[in-house]
Design brief:
331 residues; mainly alpha; two-stranded antiparallel sheet; two-stranded antiparallel ribbon; globular; transmembrane helix; membrane
Amino acid sequence: MTMEVTQVNSPADMSKAKIGSANLKAFAPLAVLLILLGIISIFQPTFVGGVGLEILAYQAIPILLLGLGQFGVIQLGRIDLSSATVAVLASVSVAQLLEPLGMFAPIATIGIGAAAGFANGMVINYFQVPSFAVTLGAIGVWQSLSLVIAKETTVYVSANGEIIDWLDSFQIGGYSAAVFIGLLLAVVAWAVMRWTRFGTFVKAMGLNERASIMSGVPTAAVTVAVFTISGAFAALAGIVLTAQQGTASASGLGVGLLLPSIAATICGGVALTGGVGSALNVIVGSMIIALIPVGSSVVGIDPRYQQIVYGLVVILAVILTIDRTKLKFVK
């Protein structure tokens, strides 16, 4: 008689498997980016070796800055639907403030963005309203305020433009100063999330907010701080947009950046359920999303289908990154 032995994995083996799976997910966004660049290079061999990457970086930097703001919010397991509108508000604000405030205009503009985020966070936390509802309503508030500031017209940067122009005009190796600032801020965000108590609090709340409250985590302060930071990043994105375009409008380029910024964050491996992801991968995610319109034009895809691609990318990214252990009791 032969006895069949069933092998049972030890806790150590299971832990190694989880670490291996996490490492695979961490490198997956980079693999996707390299595959996309390879496909585009087949249709346009000079894309990577020529100015293609410079164009990609130009398109990606506003998405990266917005994505970094979304990163902290999504780490909490929440969402900020108003960030792109705050970027538009900042864009028209800095264009209007450059003449009267000069070098203090960018600082004041970032303050405006931070104040908008602070207001979102306060309402979400102290009135216990879902972030989806609050920031959805905030879109109308910040959009209307942008129209008032811009007087429902395009605002041209006519005075003291050099104060922000250097973000786009000063270049190293074909890449603007804004690109290097974005990369530096991504590294700072990664370091904060990895090495500080604040980062630990954010991840803990994203993984289990109720347990965090019972553990003494200052959840109210953390929530307000994260949304304030998101507003500041959105304002910086708006300043970069104005520097790139030389103009600002309440119905300008920033309005369409909400979906790309969220998609960039999720494509970077940040789970919508919270507590999982790296700010460094948001860099890769922003490049993937920026590559969709750039690559579509290179390959010859009709621009009308780009929003379909964005939507499919978001759905696929959510499927791959969502933490299903949090959903097992949800019917």
